[in-house]
Amino acid sequence: MSELLDSPSSIAAFRTALLAWYGANKRSLAWRDSDDPYHVWISEIMLQQTRVDQMDNYFTRFIERFPALVDLAAAQEADVLKVWEGLGYYARARNMHKAAQLIVAEHGGRVPNNYEELIALPGIGEYTAAAVSSIAFDRDHAVLDGNVVRVLCRLLRIEEDPRRTATRTQLISASQRLLQPGRAGDFNQGMMELGARVCTPQKPHCHTCPVGALCRAKAELDDPTSLPLKAPKKKKPHYPVAAGLIWKGDQVLIAQRPRDGMLGGLWEFPGGKREEGESLQECLRREIREELDFEIEVGEVLCSVDHAYSHFSITLYALSARYKGGEPKAIGCADWRWVYPEELDDFAFPRSDRKVIEFVRQRGWQLALF
Ligand code: SF4
Fold first, then answer.
1. Is 151 in the pocket of ligand 1 (CB under 6 A)?
2. What CATH number has the domain spanning 240-368?
């Protein structure tokens, strides 16, 4: 794969250069300045959802609300989802909550200090187990995230698809071989930081790279950004979605999404995907019948919001509507409530519904009444 991995002196030079660069360049970040394993765990889960430069606020807000692991374990799931609001992929928050309860029940409230016990917890995969065991406990486990994959593919000139199992095994073995024993926390963070700030996807700073002298892509390729090999782009499907601001007097209906699915446990204005040939109004009436089994009158579109998820995108059309008859039943949702507009902030909503709330709030709720 590369002479680097066969040469103990080159490996030593790589470790020294990386650790020196990281020591001199690491950013001061709220979670990095703490060695509390609980903080490390929370931050590593959050980092899978958002960029480092956007994470400070989320992390600080989370730790203020749940200062210790026991506070997270004792919380209601709805409170955890509310604090997680905006980060997306809510299954991570639910799993973190479950894992905290298991850690209290089975590990005396202390985050396990080894890879095997960590990976047995809900929501903790290979990456998180390696990151927490190395960063919080200096266990010799190399991490492999997107940044590290990019650095390794260029450094070692790996011209195979890194998503293939065989290539991934090769990458894990290479990163484990490069890892500085006893300094796994700094080494792993140094690799991730190098990928984020120097060996960037589009414009790597090869001329100032601390490990440039050992890099095959720099030495042998005209364009290091040709690595890692990219997956062919698939076109994501796009769906129009109708959502109702359904009024009964001064109260509006919100529904809770089924706990196990996408955005599980979050609240939303009920509705769903428009089917071929349907108007938005027909779609909303049908969805409300199917999911909640009652009748509505539907008015105009109040606003539309575009939102992209990992595998598809939507345009969410918010329509004003009015309760007509029948008692709502939670058929296709976990729960439902009539609430006053000022109560909406007590619930966790997906980002697209939150945008609808902000839009209508700015213009006055009277406008949305139907
Ligand atoms: S020399 Fe360039 S391609 Fe190689 S690791 Fe450094 S930034 Fe990445």
1. yes
2. 3.90.79.10
Our mutation pick for probing the ligand 1 site, out of 10, 158, 197, 206, counting the most ligand atoms within 8 A of Cβ, is 206
Model pLDDT, residue 222: 95
pLDDT given at position 359: 94
pLDDT of residue 196: 93
**241 bridge partner residues:** 273, 316
pLDDT at 228: 97
Ligand 1: centre distance to CA 136 (Å):
28
How many helices (H) does the chain have, and how many strands (E)?
16, 7
- Domain boundaries along the sequence of the chain: 3-226, 240-368
Ligand 1, atom 2, residue with closest C-alpha: 206
Below-70 pLDDT ranges, the chain: 1-2, 368, 370
Q: Pocket of ligand 1, candidates 14, 147, 148, 209: which has the most ligand atoms within 8 Å of its Cβ, to mutate?
A: 209
pLDDT score at 145: 94
d(CA 334, CA 59): 29
Same CATH topology for 3-226 and 240-368: the answer is: no
C-alpha 285/C-alpha 277 separation (Å) is 14
